[in-house]
Each structure stands twice: as structure tokens, then as C-alpha cells.
Amino acid sequence: MKPYKTIILILIIGALTSCVKQPEFIDLQNVRIRNIQDSSLNISLNYIAFNENSIKTKLVDSEVSVFYRNELIGIGRLDTMIPLPSRDTIKIPMTCELDIKRLSKFFPELLLGRTSEFTFEGTGQVKAWFGSTTIKFEDKAEIDIRKTIRNEINNIISNRDNFNIKEFRFKMGSLNGALAEVVVEWKSFLPFDYKLVKQDFRVGFKGNPRPSTSYKSESEILVKPNQVIPIPLQLTLGSLDKIIGSGLSMLFQQKVDVWIEGNVGLRIAGEYFEVPISAKKEVKASSLINQSN
Q1: Model pTM greater than 0.85?
Q2: CA-based angle 54:58:63, to the nearest 5?
Q3: How many CA atoms lie within 13 A of 261 on its CB side?
Q4: Of 206, 113, 170, which Cα lies nearest the Cα of 291?
Q5: For residue 106, is pLDDT > 60?
């Protein structure tokens, strides 16, 4: 090919390519929570743009980044190619996956309002047979996320091994009753501060379904992220015959199972959460019998 023909061809291709106009972003609409799957909060949205091109074009790729407080918490990508009608308004449906772990440190402030503001930054690649261009946008949207966050906190605090009996020692006792020094542990799986505001426990022994004693407290305990909190308890147990229950089988056992059941109350950003707890621990039966003499 002669040089001047090559130059002409390059000029023609350049002119055609420059004719592919960038679609104009108009609005972000229908931003909604779909579900929580594994460790992702899935949201759907539509972004609206006007395609100024009078020729056939198609959106071959698009990506949306989601930010909260300037921190990237999720990304969405276009699932399939979308034909773009010429000189018309187009609606681009997208699904974004928000990382629950990244979002979790903001849970307390997300509980404060009915909706929370998120920032969306997107790009899209538009192609014609002779060239391409891009769509770019940045917009904000309010998401009604409070109920979803509350449910997720309930899942985190309820579906974990967060309560344990660390120590159970009989201090002294008689046929009328016994004293016990107990240390229970509360383990936090949340990445932010909150308070324990209620402990309501029932304490008993295996083989006797009736509790030997109970413990209630509304003192506040500050819990730091992912911290294990020891809670000391001074318990006055029931009389020895109630502890043993029917028969004297416990007298002949080397170890006895102590159980604690009840509820723990949490206060997070003004919201109250109640968690059922249950734990067991083996203690030496001789320690009870000896102390009762």
C-alpha cells in the first residue's frame, strides 16, 4: 500500500473512532439490598445513561465500586454484554457484592439512622465496530440497611461459641447451702466496642433439671473488639439435697457436670441485643462433699 493511502486510511479510522460519543450518565436508581450470601451483602442497582450515538453500539464491560466513609467495601461487574439503542435512554442493571467483614466495623453507626449514604463510582466500556468509548460516573445513594445490619449482628453474636465456664470452685458449704466462686468468659467476635448490660444466669447440676441458684446483674461491662472478658460470680447454691437431687448417686461420682444457662444483654449504638447462652463444666464432686462436712 502506498504511503499516502496508509495515511488516508489512518485519518479515516481516526475520524470514525472520534465519532463514537461518550454516553451521558443521568442517574442512579433502585439501589436495594437483595440478600446476604456467605460473607457478602448483595445489592442491586440500575444506572441510567443517555446514548448519544446514532450508530449501533454495545456495552461490553462495566464495573461499579462501592464506598462507605471513603473506604472501598464492594465491587459489582456487568454479567453480560448489553446492546445500546441509538439516541435513547438506557438502564444498566448491576449487582454489587459488599464485603461484610470490611463493613462490620461501621455497624454501630449504620444502626443509628434508618438509611445510610453510600458512594458509587462506575465505568463502562462502549464499543462500535470501528471504535470505543467509556461511561464514567460517581453518585451517592441512601440504602435502608439498618434491619439487615441488626440481623447480621444477631447472627454473629448468636452462632458462635462466645460463652464459657472458666472456673468453678466450691468455697464452703453445709447441708443448708454452699458457696461457689465462678468465673465465666464472654468472647466478642465483633470488631468494635460495645457494652454488656445484663447477665441473667441459672446454675445447676447434671441429673437435676431444676436450677440450684440464679444470678442477675445489670452492671455495664465495656467490651473491646475481639476481646475475651472474664466475669467473676459469687454464687450461693441451694441446700445439698437440692444439689444432689433424688438419690445419692452424685456422692459416688468423681466428677459432676455443672451447667449455666440464661441470657446476656448487649448495648450497641443504643440498640439492645439479647443472646441466649449455655455452657457446661466438669468439677470434682469430692470438693462439694468435703466442703459440706
Answers
A1: no
A2: 130
A3: 9
A4: 170
A5: yes
Q: Is the pLDDT of residue 293 over 50?
A: no
User: In this structure, which long-range contacts are made by residues 259-263, counting pairs with CB atoms below 8 Å and at least 24 apart in sequence?
Assistant: 259/203, 259/204, 259/205, 259/206, 260/165, 260/182, 260/184, 260/201, 260/202, 260/203, 261/201, 261/202, 262/199, 262/200, 262/201, 262/202, 262/214, 262/215, 263/198, 263/200
Q: How many residues make up the chain in this entry?
A: 293
Give the residue with greater pLDDT, 244 vs 199.
Answer: 199
The span from the CA of 13 to the CA of 203, in Å, is 83
Residues 37-49: tens digit of each pLDDT: 888 999 999 999 9
Closest CA to 269 of 109, 153, 145, 156: 109
d(CA 111, CA 164): 28
Domains of the chain, with CATH numbers?
Answer: 20-155 (2.60.40.10), 160-291 (2.60.40.10)
Query: What is the tens place of the pLDDT at every residue in 164-191?
Result: 999 988 776 554 567 888 999 999 999 9
| Rounded Cα–Cα distance for residues 78 and 167 (Å) | 55
Grid coordinates in use for 134?
A: 467509556
Cell triple for 6: 496508509
